[in-house]
Amino acid sequence: MPELPEVEGFRLYLEATSLHQPIVNFDVEDTRLLTTDPVVLNEALHGAAFTGTRRVGKNLFVYTTKPAVILRMHFGMTGSLEYYHTSLDRPRHARMVFSFLSGFNLAFVCPRKFERIGLVTDIDGYLQDKKIGKDALELTEEELATALAHRKVPIKSALLDQRVAAGVGNWIADELLYQAKIHPEKIAATLTKAEVHAVWKAIGEVLQKAIEKEARYADFPLSYLIHARAWDTSPHPNQEQHLRCQRDGTKIEISKVGGRTTYFCPVCQV
């Protein structure tokens, strides 16, 4: 599932390829993926051009030359973008395609059809209505402390609540708690000031590293917990080594926290 780092990559990709080109057509293969009526959407986009982007958590907002027309993209479980020339074949699973006057196209690729596109008129209003908090990378330590102060749920569950830190997903929560040396089941409201600082610091470090590595998990530092996850396909010479804590050699444990599969070290995350 595309998490904050992947969506940041999509944002940069769209800005590098698709800005300032008038849209001459918007083709939709499956209207169920739209949150706006297709006729309204096509009319709003026709003749407009993308001018910039804003990402909040896993949501990508695209500004256009029409101030009241802002596109929202959500990449669901398998969504991505692909920029290509009209002379080339349409990408597989390209459920929606923006065609530009330049002869190039931007495809919204949706293999499993959990992705969504639609219009919003006010980003902040949309975020408020959907109860999406501040983007995790923009969150201050004080804001994090305030958000956790009265939450009597496990810290992992609190971090997955998009009202607390928008964009933090399952593996990210495990990783930042591992780096902060905090057990995922510790009650959020009981964290000390030093522990809140450790979590806040880890949020920035883990997300920035993931963005830097373009979310290629195999390229993450070997000290990262992510290499113990079952879906990590990085070529480890000794896979058993990566099923153990890189600090103390303890075998990484797997449990359920708030119904989500959770990886942690039972020794350094007390």
How would you describe the overall organization of this protein?
This protein is α+β, with helices and mostly antiparallel strands and 270 residues long. The chain has 2 domains: 4-129, MutM-like, N-terminal (N-terminal domain of MutM-like DNA repair proteins, Alpha-Beta Barrel), CATH 3.20.190; 136-264, Orthogonal Bundle (Helicase, Ruva Protein, domain 3), CATH 1.10.8. The protein has helices at 4-17, 38-45, 123-129, 141-148, 155-160, 170-180, 193-212, and strands at 23-28, 50-56, 59-64, 70-74, 80-85, 94-100, 104-109, 116-120, 253-257, 260-264. The strands form 3 sheets. A 4-stranded antiparallel sheet has the order 1-6-7-5, covered by helices on one side. The protein has a 4-stranded antiparallel sheet with strand order 2-3-4-8, covered by helices on one side. A two-stranded antiparallel sheet has the order 9-10. α1 crosses α7. The longest helix has 20 residues, at 193-212. The chain is elongated. The model has no long low-confidence stretch (mean pLDDT 94).
